[in-house]
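Sequence, please.
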């Protein structure tokens, strides 16, 4: 294993799509709190990748900030509970290739989510032996670029690459000073990126080329 060359993954839109279960969780909490809003999976998918406060501002700006924050905390707790029970939908090739990649490189996850969310992905699919470290804004209060840099430094990586699906993922990678691979099959829409994959199955080859540079 090349222990000093790491692959850092975004989660939503890169490894899985949890928008169905997350939408159920948020709708449950909204109903419990008398919020007249029902989310479809499609609308929830548009929100994925944003921070929780950003999602709250987009969906329920009409609720005063203190009450909104409390509702958002409930939403996070409920989605963690549901995802630990039912998981999300992993993209084709993820469960097949993560063990293959882990034989060559240490694997990490950095996401703009609450604490417990990445753990729900790892726990549901039994990936604790493959994912060496994780970080998120919910634990550090830092945004994605800083959290990528934190993982690189904490785990002693001389080289790293960030795999994500949105333009903000690309910006975060640049802020952290690591190459970026765009997961074009995800939620991020069209944007320019030096490296891109249309399927997770394409990742091993492009990873190898990045670390040879």
């Amino acid at each position: 294993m090349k222990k000093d060359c790491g692959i850092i993954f975004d989660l939503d839109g890169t490894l899985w799509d949890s928008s169905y279960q997350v939408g159920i969780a948020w709708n449950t909490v909204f109903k419990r709190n008398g919020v007249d809003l029902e989310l479809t999976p499609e609308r929830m998918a548009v929100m994925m990748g944003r921070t929780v406060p950003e999602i709250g501002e987009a969906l329920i700006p009409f609720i005063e900030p203190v009450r909104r924050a409390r509702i958002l905390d409930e939403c996070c707790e409920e989605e963690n509970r549901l995802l630990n029970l039912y998981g999300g939908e992993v993209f084709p090739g993820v469960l097949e290739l993560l063990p293959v990649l882990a034989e060559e490189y240490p694997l990490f996850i950095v996401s703009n989510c609450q604490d417990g969310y990445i753990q729900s992905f790892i726990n549901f699919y039994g990936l604790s032996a493959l994912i060496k470290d994780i970080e998120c804004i919910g634990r550090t209060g830092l945004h994605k670029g800083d959290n990528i840099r934190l993982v690189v430094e904490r785990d002693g990586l001389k080289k790293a690459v960030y795999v994500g699906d949105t333009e903000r993922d690309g910006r975060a990678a640049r802020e952290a000073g690591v190459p970026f691979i765009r997961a074009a099959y995800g939620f991020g829409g069209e944007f320019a990126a030096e490296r891109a994959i249309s399927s997770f199955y394409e990742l091993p080859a492009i990873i190898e080329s990045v670390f040879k540079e």
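The chain has ten helices and eight strands.
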